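ESCALATION

Customer reports they have been waiting on this structure for their group meeting. Please prioritize. Original submission:
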Amino acid sequence: MKRRHGVLGGLVLVGALGAHAGMGDCEPPGEPPNVPDGAVAAEELLAEASGEVRNYVAETQEYLACLEARETSLGEDITDEQRADIVNTYNAAVESMQAVADNFNEQVRRYRERLDDN
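Update from on-call: job pushed to the front of the queue and completed.
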């Protein structure tokens, strides 16, 4: 499978993805978690968001693995349309996961800056 994105690691991995035709039994992750504003949020809220982000990442990684398995299972019978749909869905999931990670990491940075200012 050609992917636009490489494999991401750690919590840095941190859109709703609809079911697409040809995705088989692949279950898309739930809604991305809401991450509180680090400039004002309590540490407990950020810790809770961290767990939600980790869960979202795990769900998304399972979804990505399923999409890869789906493509493999179609073998040489895969159509160009099916391949494009799987690749586009895969890339959208990676982009959503990265957006969640970027937002979470930004909010943690803002929280730490707030602590440093006090």
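Sent to customer with the following note: DSSP finds two helices and no strands in the chain.
Escalation resolved.
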